[in-house]
Structures are given as C-alpha cells and as structure tokens.
Design brief:
alpha/beta; 6-stranded parallel β-sheet; 16 helices; UDP-N-acetylglucosamine 2-epimerase (Non-hydrolyzing)
C-alpha cells in the first residue's frame, strides 16, 4: 500500500495476520540513499527464511527523506528492493521539520497497524525519528550498524546515532570497535551482536553486475587513470571560497587525470558560484549504484567526505582519502585503504604525491565483512523471538 496524501488513509487494514503468537512483524525503515544498500540484503534474507518456514514477515517503510529518483528510486530498481508497503513522503525540509514529519506519520501508521519490531539501519534522520516513534509506543527497536561513533557532535549523523542507540533494544554491529563503544556506554553485552556489514553484502552480490556509466566512453576513461570525488558535508561545500580552494587543490595535484565528481544536490549550487573551469574536472549528475561503483572500483583513488564509501573502497582495495577530521569507521583507516586527511585542503598535495609515487597502503578487509551479515541478523532475530 503506497499513498501520496499528506496524511495516512483513515482506514488501514492490518498488513499481516497477528493471530499467530509466534509470528514476528518487522518494519524495515528506509529513507535516504545510504539506507537502501543496507536494507536490500536484509529483505532477501527474510524471504529466504520465510521459504524455510520461519514465521517472519516484514513491511518496507519508505519515509521519503530522499525523494529524487536518482537519490532513491534508481536504487530500488538496481538492488531489487520491492515497492514500499508505505511511503510517508515527508519530502524536503530542515532537520527538525523532517524529523517531526517522519515521527508523526510513522506514529499514525503504527497506531492503526502496529508491528512487533522496528528495524532501522545507519544514521540518517529517518533512523532516529522512526526509532523514537516506535519506542514511545513500546515497540522494540533493532539498530543495524549500531555503535559507530565519530565523536563529532557537529555532524547530524552523530546525534542520530547516539539518540537511536540510547533507546535501541537489539544492537547489530559492523565491528568489534562498535561493540566496545556500546559496552562503554552501558549497553548490556547480551543485547549486542557483532554480525558484520550489510552494505558489504550488497557490494559483494552486485559487484559482478557493475556497469560502465555512459560517461566512460564519452570521456575516454581507462582503469586507474582517473580520480573520483564525492563531497557533500557542510564543512566542505557550504562556503564557495573554501570549496573552490579544495577543488583547485585536487585539480592542481591530479597529474592531469580526469576528475569525476558526481555532484550531490546540496553541492551543485555552490560549485556554480566558484567559477572553476578546469579541463579535467567533470561534474556529473548523481549515478545509480551499479554505475557509481563501477567507477569507484576502477579509479586510481577516491577523494570523499562520505563514511560509507570508505567501507566500499576498503573492500575493493581502492585508495581513499577522506576530507574530515574524524571518522566513525576507524577500521577503514587502521585495516583498510582509507586515510583521514582532515579538512585542510593543503593536505591533499602530499597525499596525492604519495598516491602517484605508488606508496599508498594495500589494506585488508575487516572481520565478518564477508557478504553473510544479513543472514546472521535475520537468524538472530528469529532466535530472539523464538520463531
């Protein structure tokens, strides 16, 4: 059931039969692009357990936090995610506006058609908002990718993580570092399950299906002969002068290689204000999952301020430079191919020099990032609810 109205329909029939005490009804929450590759393998694992006779059901709740096709719909199609059972269609707005809309609309849904468990992933606004709405109705919450911390409270995502973990019942962690963070915060060990990384489940499954974007031919790209850049954090893109300095540092130290920059919507307007005109800089529209990761896999290096991309580059063995002072994914630096450069654009010159001299570290893959995380999560849920 998908609706387009501002509020939920007055009458919502229960999505599932609650007559069996042993059945668990799970709401899987997705709202923004980083969520989609994390929920796809969980849904697949639930379906596999259903085929084996497990009395488990789910409804997919799309909050509509990301509503642009390139930021949302394209991922559903490419990753084989089913149509949402409900779309809350909250649209754009400030952090507070989106949080309020999501909480109100998800609460209304739960009051008319409750679930047994609210499963949230990652650290976007939808994750926090739905967790709060569910918990206030005494519905249990499971957080996938729990316990990661950057220590930077200027990041909205860090606040989302902390609030969500403060009210979560079941914590599924990507690393032992994340598990330790939860233990230190007072969470009981029996609530924490170190399972690995669902985003890597999707990456490993889809890797054989990566496909060249159209620009591959038009720009005459070749493997390891271009750089990929992604920037969206306010500290990097909100001030035109700073953004210009940063991009110029990349251009000036790129050895003339093509620079492919899929532009996040919040960044496009700022770039137009910089007046940058470099022959090897190519700003392009956001891409689908399969096309973007084809570019990443074949890149000389990636320069980013995203957290999730650092995980993907680590698994694919691609050098990665992160333009942030902190990271909630330290394993990508201590184990993987990522290096934290900080927010000073001048750090790019020595980093790129190191790359072109062939001195970048090789890296390794963190424990349990093996493509089987979602299966472990679903089996643990079945055990927890004694299905």
């Amino acid at each position: 059931m998908i609706y387009a109205e501002q509020t939920l329909p007055k009458e919502i029939k229960p999505a599932f039969d609650h007559s069996s005490e042993k059945q668990i009804i799970i709401d899987i929450i997705a709202g923004a692009r980083p969520n989609f590759m994390k929920i796809a393998p969980i849904i697949e694992s639930i379906k596999q357990e259903q085929e084996l006779g497990a009395n488990i059901a789910f409804r997919l709740i799309h909050t509509g936090q990301h509503y642009d096709k390139m930021m949302s719909g394209n991922f559903f199609e490419q990753l084989g995610i089913p149509e949402p059972d409900f779309n809350l269609e909250v649209g754009s707005g400030t952090q507070a506006e989106q949080t309020a809309k999501i909480m109100m609309r998800y609460e209304e849904l739960l009051l008319k058609s409750p679930a047994d468990l609210c499963l949230v992933v990652g650290d976007v606004t939808s994750t926090m908002a739905c967790s709060i709405a569910a918990k206030k109705l005494n519905i249990k919450v499971a957080h996938v990718e729990a316990g990661i911390r950057s220590g930077d409270l200027s990041m909205p995502e860090e606040i989302n993580r902390m609030v969500t973990d403060a009210i979560t019942d079941y914590f599924f962690t990507t690393t032992k570092i994340a598990s330790d963070n939860l233990i230190k915060s007072g969470i009981k060990a029996e609530q924490i399950f170190f399972v690995g990384n669902t985003m890597i489940d999707t990456l490993l499954k889809q890797m054989p299906h990566f496909k060249k974007p159209e620009l591959w031919s038009s720009l005459v790209l070749a493997p390891q002969q271009y750089l990929v850049v992604t920037l969206h954090r306010p500290s990097n893109v909100d001030e035109a002068d700073r953004l210009k300095f940063l991009i110029n540092e990349i251009v000036d130290n790129s050895m003339g290689l093509p620079i492919i920059f899929p532009v996040h919507p919040r960044t496009a307007q700022k770039i137009s204000q910089t007046g940058i005109n470099a022959a090897n800089l190519h700003t392009v529209e956001p891409m689908g999952y399969l096309e973007f990761n084809y570019l990443v896999r074949n890149a000389k290096a990636v320069i980013t301020d995203s957290g999730g991309i650092t995980e993907e580059t680590t698994v694919m063995g691609v050098p990665c430079m992160t333009l942030r002072n902190t990271t909630e994914r330290p394993e990508t630096c201590s184990i993987g191919t990522n290096e934290l450069l900080g927010t000073n654009p001048e750090a790019l010159k020595p980093a790129l020099k190191k790359l072109f001299e062939g001195e970048w570290k090789k890296g390794a893959i963190p424990e349990l990032w093996d493509g089987k995380t979602s299966a472990r999560i679903v089996k643990q849920l079945i055990n927890l609810f004694a299905l």
